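Chain A, query sequence.
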Amino acid sequence: MSFSAETAFELLSRAYAQERLAHAYLLAGPRGSGKRQLAVNLARLVTESDAGLDHPDVHTAEPESKSRRLRIEQTRALEKELQMRSLMGKRKVAIIFEADRMTAEAANGFLKTLEEPPNHSLLLLTSDQPESLPETILSRCITVPLSRDGVEELTGPQRELLDGVAAVFRERERGIPVVYRLVRIFSGLLQQARDRITEVNEAELKGEESHYRQTTESDWLDDREEHYKALTESHYVRERSLLSETLVAWWADVLRQQQGAGGLDLLDYAEQTGHLARTLSPHEALKRLAALEAMRENFGRNIKEDLAIETAFLRAFAE
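Chain A, predicted structure.
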């Protein structure tokens, strides 16, 4: 059974009032379920302050590196802050956002804090892929399963990509040619996104050029060209991340259906992911999910984009 974020907060508030609040909770649910806001509200509750994440006794960690991993240096810093005396005399709170992004080293290192939490502390972990967390972490937290507050509308490119994925699994034989057809769809959507973003930003730059040419003699044009170049790349990376996350959501839904969990990310494709949940083992589904996670990490490294895509797709979608 899953709860709305509002209902979960009411139940946990009642436990806090009765001094029955546990020391560690995993707030688990799909995108749009309100995990982050629930963590903020709980921090406000136990610190008895509206400051939320800005409160001096509230400490957080979340993925920051290019690979979007949460490293042991971050969890160690969190543990050190928890060992300090509360500045306001209330509870200390540690929040790990996207806890499933912890490296194995970070997860293992944080176990001691979960096993022996500092006095008067509350540990909160959030995750939309709790099945990716080690069992040692899961067993030391009380999981609060959250349902999505509302269904996020898929974009046209997301639907085109997911229709391509569904088509792959309708094939009787999923050889390399079938997978490369999906690679072409994904790469084509990325190119369309880049072309669209470039066109918009070039039009913006041209508009600025005609306006400012008569008002300045400085090297403003070079500065603005650099600005729009960086802006184009930033927007492109965001579009690529959205499509990559869509593929991750596909396999996350397969895992959720294998475990009988609700709160699917891709409700319109529940039949297709449900079929895979019945035909693949959890180990196989996790392996395919890991291939796409590795692709997202490789995007942040000095690895050619097309090579990262091809490698990941062969591991995630071939037989």
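The radius of gyration is 23 Å. The first strand starts at residue 24 and ends at 28.
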